[in-house]
Structure formats: C-alpha cells, structure tokens
UniProtKB/TrEMBL annotation:
Organism lineage: Bacteria, Pseudomonadati, Pseudomonadota, Gammaproteobacteria, Lysobacterales
Any one GO MF annotation of this record: catalytic activity
Record-linked InterPro entries: DUF6630, FAD-linked_Oxase-like_C
Keyword tags: FAD, Flavoprotein
Protein name from the UniProt record: DUF6630 domain-containing protein
DUF6630 domain span: 30-176
Region spans: Disordered: 1-22
Length: 181
C-alpha cells in the first residue's frame, strides 16, 4: 500500500501555454516521470514514488541523480537494468514489462535458444524491442548508466516529447532504445 504521508502533487510541472517545465520541484518531476512510465497505472506509480522518496530521505540516493533511486524503485516492474552482455535477462525483463499491456515481441529468433542469444547483444535486442513496441504505440527508452550496463523504461509514444523534456530537466540523459548507449 502507498505511504500514508504521501503528498499529492497537483501541478505536474508543465506550463500548458509554453511547454516550460518547473525545475524547482524534483519530486514533482519524478512523479511525472513515474506517471509516464506507468501509463494508466497510478497505483504502481504511487508505490514506486514512495520507494523513491524513502531512498532520498534515507540518503541512499541523491536527488540530483534521481535515475539511481528510480532504477531500484522501478526494476522489473516499469524499468530494466541489465549487464551489457546479459541478453537472456534483457529479453526476460522486457517480456515481463510488456505483459502489462498484453504484448508480445517477435525477437527475430528463438529466445530459448542459447545460440541465438549468443549471436546477438543487448543493443541489438533493444533496437528490435524499440521497433516492435512502436508498432503498438510505445517507446523503449534507455538512459546513460555511465557503465557497460543498460537501463531504461517504456512509455507511450505520444509522450515522447514530454519524456525528453522531463529527463533533460532531471539531468537524465536518455535515448530511444534504437540508439543504445
């Protein structure tokens, strides 16, 4: 259940007239990001927001780099974080994430075949997932981990511009999954 002391954010940080974003309230920005990566599922966004706030409050994460607190809050529910060579886990986590929308991805080969997974890599699979998800109105995003690992999330394609603006203000460098870091 969500934390009882959750403060509802009324202003999402967007100004409808000129698309400016209020950069003063990081929590509001993070809340909006969680809404984007949990389309139609405010309950999950609330749970993840509580985890994010706890991590910040306990000093386990830095508000200036919210992606790290978000990584733990959303992992395997609304986002992914995998090692650069772990193709099997990447396929598994994406398949888990898209179950929310009753989607399946044609990965271009038999994902239960170790040889298929050994012949590819996470960025190639990410590009396949990006293309297949776009067909259904979703975008796969990846953010710069500063390491060999790959991380990201999925949102509605109609929110692409908002996602880019929000992440820019939050200092999270993102790219479409078709152009992995």
């Amino acid at each position: 259940m969500p934390d009882d002391d959750f403060e509802e954010v009324e202003d999402p940080g967007y100004d409808d007239d000129d698309d400016d974003i209020d950069t003063d309230d990081v929590e509001a920005l993070v809340w909006n990001l969680l809404l984007l990566i949990n389309p139609g599922d405010e309950e999950t966004a609330l749970r993840q927001f509580a985890i994010y706030r706890d991590a910040i409050a306990q000093g386990d994460a830095d508000e200036e780099e919210p992606q790290w607190a978000l990584k733990d809050a959303i992992d395997w529910t609304s986002g992914f974080y995998v090692d650069w060579k772990d193709t099997e886990t990447f396929v598994d986590v994406i398949n888990e994430l898209i179950k929310r929308w009753n989607l399946d991805i044609d990965w271009g080969g038999d994902i239960s075949d170790e040889e298929f997974l050994d012949r590819t890599d996470v960025p190639a699979l990410m590009a396949v997932a990006y293309d297949r998800l776009r067909e259904h109105g979703y975008s796969l995003w990846t953010w710069d981990t500063g390491s060999d690992s790959h991380a990201g999330w999925i949102a509605l394609s109609r929110d692409d511009e908002g996602m880019q603006q929000l992440c820019q203000v939050l200092g999270i460098e993102i790219r479409p999954g078709s152009d992995a870091f």
